[in-house]
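Marked as duplicate of an earlier ticket. Keeping the data here for the record.
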Amino acid sequence: MANLIPVAKTVGVNRLVPTISIPYPLGDPATPKEEQFKLRYHRVGVALDALTTDIKEPQLFKVKF
């Protein structure tokens, strides 16, 4: 999971899951708690799927924004 995708690519990360922001990578404190839970649940799910996916080259996994 990374905020700065270009930097992560530069250092050679194989599996990239975008996060929301630098101070709050998995949530947005300006949104209701229910919305934050949905954001976090989805991104962690994508990250777990990324870990179990067999890849041959670096891959950016899509998330809902």
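See parent ticket for discussion. Strands lie at 15-16, 59-60.
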